[in-house]
Amino acid sequence: MEEDASLFPKKELLDNVPLVENERDELEDPEFETEFLPREAGNSADSGCLCLEKQHNADADISKKKTAIPDGLQACHLRKTLSHLEKLREEKELFLQKTRGELRACRQRMDLITKQQASVSAEVAAEKEANSTAAVGRLQAVSRRLCTELDNERDLQSEIKALLRKSESTMWHIAIQEGQLEDSPKSAQEEEVAGRKRLREQAAKQLRKEEEALEKAERNRLLRVRKSIYLQREHGLRHQKLVEDAQRNHKIAVRFLKASLRRIREQERKEERKSRAHMKRRMDAVLALKNSITANRETLRKFQAWGQAKAELAEQKAQAEKEMILAQGGDAFKHLFHQRRCQELDAQKRTFEEEQKLRKQEIVSRILKEEAEEENRKKKQSSPAKATDRLTLRDKTWSYVTDVCEGRDTVLSCHLLDSDGAAHPKAPQLLEAISSESVQGDPGNTSWEDDTLAEPEIPGLWKEDYKPYQVPKEEVDRKPVGGTKMDKDILARTMEQVRCRVTHKQVVSGCEFKGHPFNSKPKLIHFKDFDIGKVYKKKITLINATYTINYCKLVGVEDHLRDFIHIDFDPPGPMSAGMSCKVLVTFKPMINKDLEGNVSFMTQTGGFSVPLKCSTKKCALSLDKELIDFGSYVVGETTSRTITLTNIGGLGTKFKFLPASESCEMDVSQSVMKISNVFTDEDKSLYDKTITSISEQQIEGNESFPTDMPSQKESGKRDSKEQEKGRPTESEGVTVTTVVTIPPNEEQTEISLGEVTEGEIGPFSSIKVPVIFTPVIPGEVQTRFKVVFKNQQCPTLYFRVLGAALDVPVWVPSIDLKTCMYDRLYQESVLVHTRSKAALRLKFEVCKELREHMELLPETGYIQAQSSYAVQLKFLPRHSLPEDAGKYFDKESRVLEAPMTIRVADQLKPVGFTVRAVVTTSDLELRPSAVDFGYCTVYEAVRTQISLYNHCLLPQGFGFVGLPKFVDIQPNDGFGTILPLEMLHLDVIFQPTKAKEYNFELVCKSEINRCFKLACRAVGVHPPLELSHYQVKFAATSLYDMSVATLYVINSHVSMNSLTHSMPRIGSEDASPVGPTTFEFLLPPDSPITISPSVGTVLPGKRCLIQVGFRPVLPGKLIHQEASQALTKPVEVKLLRKDTATQRKDLRKQSFSTLRLQNQDRLLRTSTTPTAELCEQDFKFSSDEYQAAQATLARSFQGKFDKFVVPCVVASGDPKDRKGTEPLSFSPHNTLYLELWCPAVAPSIVVTSDRGRTISNFGDIAVGHRGIKKVSIQNISLEDLAVEFSMLNPNGPFVLLNPISKLLAGETHVLTLSFSPHESILAQETLDIITKRGKLSLTLLGTGVAPMITCSIEGDTLDMGYVIARESVSSSFKLQNCSALPIQFSLQLDSLSRSRSEDQQRLPQFLASRARRTEVVGTQNNSGQSVFSVIPVKGIMDPGKAQDFTVTFSPDHESLYFSDRLQVMLFEKKLSHQILLKGAAREHMMFVEGGDPLDVPVESLTVIPTYDPERREEAEEPKPILVTLDYIQLDTETPAPPATRELQVGCIRTTQLSPKKTVEFSLDSGTSLQHKGFTIEPSRGSVERGQTKTISISWMPPADFDPDHPLMVSALLQLKGDVKETYKVLFVAQVVTGP
Predict the structure, then answer these.
(1) 1583, 1561 in Cβ contact below 8 A?
(2) pTM
(3) What is the spatial distance between Cα 1461 and Cα 1390, in angstroms, rounded to a whole number?
(4) How far apart are the first and last CA of the chain?
């Protein structure tokens, strides 16, 4: 009881915290308080609550709430406690009832179990008396189970009793609590009355406090208002000041921004100009390269032709020699072989001689070089000689050639002359020398000829790497000869390591210094216009630009400057930031050559260098102007202008001014003249040919590389002008005598030069030359002059002089009235000018022929001195102007040239001027003159094109006015401007409003109010059918996507009443009948349009739904072309690479002559082979190539817009109602037309995997398995796309595993698709990837294949037979794969399964009935190893293949019930076959089969005692065999057949050694068995090993047989083998009626 009372203590029931919280919330609600308070108390409570909410003192509020709440809280709490106790009591009573019921049920189960125990005990006693061990064991197990259940029930009963007692105690405790709380309501009412009184008092007190608080709050509010007004005023002033400051700052910022933008725009313009100049240079370079390639091709073509001609000539010569030898009777083959052998020997001899010559030349050149160095060294040491002018390389070369030709050089003459002592060199040698000179003379030419020219016989000056000897410095000793490349690399690495250790980073205040440590003033050391032998000095200042102290050390100058530059630098030690030091640079030139390099220094923070440049003296000549225009001067006056020749270079030269028409002869090299004296006529001709060919090649080379020639850069424009006049551009190849003669023009003495026309201009100077103009004859004068120079490096300069001579002081410029139209008035003011210093009287006259068309007003006037006078010209051309003007008017060109005359007083010669005008007509012509629109339905418009031709030479405005409502003219609604002699094509659109015949005119008005008419006619047609839409505009559709639009074909013709609606008719013909109407859409061929249905019949008042589909695709021809290009491109690239590599290799190895011949053959092969191969190749595109080309074209698709017009023919009637071949009532005029706008765009999402295929074929997948395929899609649009996927069949085999919702621009996503067939089926579905810009359809294909295999075992049972214990026997069977896919198989034995251990825990199956026995695993080996084994256990069977399996039976003890089940699993999931394995084992070689079973197929675990072999026969009892024979007694008169059974006696084949090879058997009691109707055959016999013999037993009931009592007879069957066994055969025979 104490424990029960503790479950519900009073304090817990009264002071439950959640209930108190809820009640407190309810009490604070005013509505809750009014339920149990009177009206006055409620109002006071309300006011008290409001006061409590407004009080600021938190402590006072809390204390008042604590005093006000307990009165009502206690009463409410008591009510809730009572209701809670009532609920608990009811629940406990219900729980007690259930517990008592469970206790009764438990007691009843205990009684039942007790009764069952008694009955089981009785059965156990009975079975023990019957000696049934198995039944006793079973009943004992049942008894033990019942005891366990009884114990469980007793435990449950005790638990229920304890729970019942506990619940009863709880009930008692609840009753006590209810009694205690019954007296609480009375005290609660009294407390409630006292609480209400306290509340009223508190409410009055709180009301007074609230009034005081309100007054105080009002005072605070007024104070806040005044303060806010003051703050608002201050804020306004501050805001105004901020606005003014912001406006002022904005103006300043705008000014700075404009300045910045101006600078930025200026910089952008500079960059744009620079980029344009760079682009222009690149374009010029590309054009030059193109010209060079063209020139090289032409040269190669010449060489090919030359080689081919030479080869043909040699072949003809050899053929002629062969024929001549054959004609003489000799051996041609022997002669040719001997000749070829001699040629080879001569070639080897020449090669050897050339090598010897080269070696000798090298030795001589080295000796001469050493002697020259020694002489120069001696001269340098004694006294430096004056610098002499060095000959150019061309002069040296030609002087050397002339010396060799004249025989001056005795040392090298033997190498240049023939072996017979001829006095002239060979032609190939001359060609080599000239070719080398051309290379030296044109350094800018980089064509392929530079690499293919033959080597000269005299190396030295011709070598590219030749450098003239440089005198060493006096102070520096000669550098030691030697030093390998490894030594130089080691020295460089060592110096680099030293510098790395010396230098280090400079960091000051956390800032690392970067940049040049020292600044140089000047930044460039430039020695300009130096002379050889003089000494030049320059000082530079180095300023420390680092943050702190730094050091500076001189490293030196570059190697090629060390002989000429000397640096004097005294290291100043540590230098603070901003300090400077001086460096003296001394330049002592020894060669006349431009030099560039750097002076290097080393500091703590790294090295730096100062650039150094030395430039020679050069001439830079220019004219200040290229055109001198004197203007107009009267005949007899003289004027002059000056032209300035300026030389801004440091080298002077001689010049000469002369007219450009005079011939000028260029300087001729003396060496050429000397050569011409020595050479013979034949050599001269060869030399001329060589010079001509080389000059042509060099001219082509110079033209191909214009950017490399300085002279062409400066005088490109002048060269083009000279070429136009017949003067070719000078080439800098070989110096050859070239005389250019220009046919002299007539001498013009009006323009001449001053006295100074020739002289010498010094460096940095200018000369002014006067040009005088003295007009003699009226007219324009033009003369061209040129300036030539002695220095050949200076180009010739040209300039032109213009002037005009006038004969009288009064002149009038020509008047051009432009283009005028007939019958229109034109006026022009003519200005008359005079140079006279006196006033003149003028009279104006018009020629007689044009006086009716033209007039000058006034006819007489005075012009003041040196001023102008205005005359009014009126021109009104009539249509008779061509006849009146006569010769002044050209009818073909319509040009009028009217001569006008001004007669000046006191001057005989009148002044004439010409008025020019082009007079034209204002006619407009409409073509054709009449328009027939033909038949047009009221649902469409007919467009006809007309032409408007303007015969006028001026543009005219036009417009079609007064158009009817059913006609429209486009463009611009028939208004516009037509240009002179232009033909405009206008579209006249006719759309009839009803069926009738139309005849009307179109009026075109010009801007001068001329009218031109066009007659029109048409026939309006109202067809019996109409379309809901005559124009369909498809949305932009992606390639291989489908857009569908719907429309209707409507038959609205339901009545023949013309008053209610318009009747379908053609023009004015009869109306169409009411009835069904047939239509057909005629699609254009090869169009991406589909219409469904395209043919149909519409009944009156009905409509037919039409679906129009648009699916853009790429043309197959275009895809085939792209695929062929993809196939041919690798072949072309491979051939091109192979040819380029071969050409480069040949260029290195072969000589010039051989190269020309091979280039010819190679070019022919290259140009013919690929073309022939590509032409002969037959492209056969596979699906992969086709898909790849299709994907490539789809990616690069730029969009396409097509417009199709589909006619819809209409016929009255229904095809089903016509009779035979009777045609329908058809008229082509009733045809409707549907216009389709089809824009095609590139797909936004494409497939990037599998060559762009949109068909995913999973192939053959086994049923129940899953195949995975991945498809990569890419967003090739420029925007992010939201992606949706169409719904696949939920019950289908296809599943999308990773859908996405968004695909970014350019992003690639891999979709994973699975195919899981549930049955053998060919599945196909379409997965649409939908975006706002289209959709991409993926076709999913797959074949579900059910794996099918067949087993060679019939009946699914494999009997292994009898085996000697501890021996084994094997048997095999086959499984065949009959399906079309490989099958993975595995074989499992039930004896090795995981559930085997669980099955062994159950009751034996023999205890159940025979029908319920399901065991398949029989006796197993005692050793724990499986008695059956199979190989292979797992593997894969290919389609159509068979697999052999071997089953081995290995028993380790004797038993007749060895069995197991073999399960064939496919793909580790599906069970295909179950094969029952059976076998028996004996200890000895004999066995007997047959008879009825007498024992269970489960071995006992009892150990069978073993006996000695000697006592085995005595101890062993005969084994029983039961044979039951049932004789079937039929109700017919015919006798029934005997009952038969069989016994099998066998001998087991064994590998053990045994004295007996057979088994003998015998069955006794044969005679007694025969008397009782049994017949046994054979009763005795023998059985060989591995054989069985059948003992047939038949029974016929004897005459004295009693059917009511079965016959039971026994006999002994003895088997003799390795041992002797005896079996007791019990025969039980009975007669049964019916089967």
Answers:
(1) yes
(2) 0.40
(3) 6
(4) 80
